[in-house]
Amino acid sequence: MHTSSRHGLSLVAVSLLTLVLNHTAIAGEDLFGYVKGAEAMPKDAIELYQKITLRNDKGQGTYRGINYETEFEYGLTNKLAVSASAKFMSLDTSGLIIDGYLPAEKKIGFQSSGAEVGLSYMFLSPAKDDIGLSMTASLDYDWIDVHSGQDKDTLSLDLGLQTQKYMLEGELIWVGNLGMESTYADRAPIANLPEDFEWSTDPEMELELKMGTGLSYRFAPNWFVSAEVLFETEFETEIGQERWSFFAGPSLHYGSADWWATLTWLPQLSGGGEQYQGQRDTSLHLIEKTEQEIRLKVAFNF
User: Fold this and answer.
1) Largest distance between two CA atoms of the chain
2) With 70 as the cut, is the pLDDT of residue 237 above it?
3) Helix-then-strand count for the chain, H and E
4) Is-contact 160 178, C-beta < 8 A?
5) Any idea what the Cα angle at residue 235 is, between residues 229 and 236, rounded to 5°?
6) Any signal peptide, and if so, which residues (predicted)?
7) Please, are residues 6 and 202 in contact by the beta-carbon 8 Å criterion?
8) What residues does 255 pair with on adjacent strands?
9) Cβ distance 252 to 266 under 8 Å?
10) Rg (alpha carbons) of the chain, rounded to whole number
């Protein structure tokens, strides 16, 4: 084979590989439900996506919370992106009262619950470098307690690091995440509570540490199957370490040039820390967390 022919074939191969890698990491495309990749959005790219999360079952009575988040993200440069989102929720809880956390049965229809702004910056590209590296920062304000549905002002700063590695010419993708969230929380008083019921209205500081990792495999054009593991632990002002939990589960992802969707099931495998009185499954943390979560993400790229 002539040198020029080999050179031409090499250029074609490199071009095809680049297309595969670029398709694997379309701007902001999430292959997982919870852990995030390190690939940045291209300059002037726009993404609008809807996230719906079902938090279900605390092991007693009925507990079903649904969280909605509508996010707009824009690529300022090929490395820096900014985002803003509006949050909503619904909640249905009955047959379960938890001292200090769930003061009453609550049923909330669809209503606004918070807002968030954020940014992300990519230091290393997973498509161009040996491994991708990015950071995220977001500021989150909520006015409804996501667990109880009661009035509660929370202001949170969330910082994260994301790594990502392409393997097998982009068919297999690994991601790893580290995160820290610091929160200022202030509960509103509740009238007519039992005298012995704890419901602190003193402002609190909370610190949550998060670690996660996942593997995703492209088993057909545009289709990925993934598995992820997530660890979370939280510390509070007076209590110290309040809780910890391990979660793991699968995801199914479809992505095209204009839109993508990811469906994730994430059950809690083990947990510890505070427990409510009469909790049957003592191997899980079920005060602030549930036995399982199901998350759907649908996004449109412009």
Assistant:
1) 90
2) yes
3) 1, 12
4) yes
5) 145
6) 1-27
7) no
8) 260
9) no
10) 22
Enclosing H/E stretch for 232: strand 223-236
Token digits of residue 221: 């054009």
Q: What distance lies between CA 71 and its chain's CA centroid?
A: 13
- The two structure tokens encoding residue 2: 């002539």
Instruction: Kindly write down the DSSP assignment for every residue of 34-97, as one continuous string.
Output: SS---PPPPTT-EEEEEEEEEEE--SSSEEEEEEEEEEEEEESSSSEEEEEEEEEEEEEEES--
Mean pLDDT, range 186-202, rounded to an integer: 87
**pTM (2 decimals)?**
0.88
* CA–CA separation, 163 and 132 (whole Å): 5
Q: With H, G, I as helix, E, B as strand and everything else as coil, classify residue 169.
A: helix
Unique residue bearing structure tokens 């994730």: 264
Where does residue 193 fall: left (phi above 0), alpha (psi -120 to 50 degrees), or beta otherwise?
Answer: beta
pLDDT at 71 over 50: yes
Label residue 44 exposed, middle or buried (CB < 10 Å: 0-12, 13-18, 19+): exposed
Tokens representing 90?
A: 């619904």
- Report residue 186 as tokens: 């202030």
For residue 178 the two structure tokens come to: 């580290």
Q: Is 254 helix (H, G, I), strand (E, B) or coil?
A: strand
Name the H helices within the chain: 3-24
Q: Which of 175, 231, 139 is nearest to 36 (CA)?
A: 175
Q: Which two tokens stand for residue 229?
A: 């593991």
Q: 80-125: per-residue pLDDT in tens? A: 999 999 999 999 999 999 988 999 899 999 999 999 999 999 999 9
Q: Which of 196, 260, 191 is nearest to 24 (CA)?
A: 260
Provide the token pair at 88: 């909503």
| CA–CA gap between residue 285 and residue 244 (Å, rounded) | 7
Q: What whole-number percentage of the chain has pLDDT above 90?
A: 79
Rounded Cα–Cα distance for residues 135 and 119 (Å): 8
Which residue matches tokens 């590209």?
A: 125
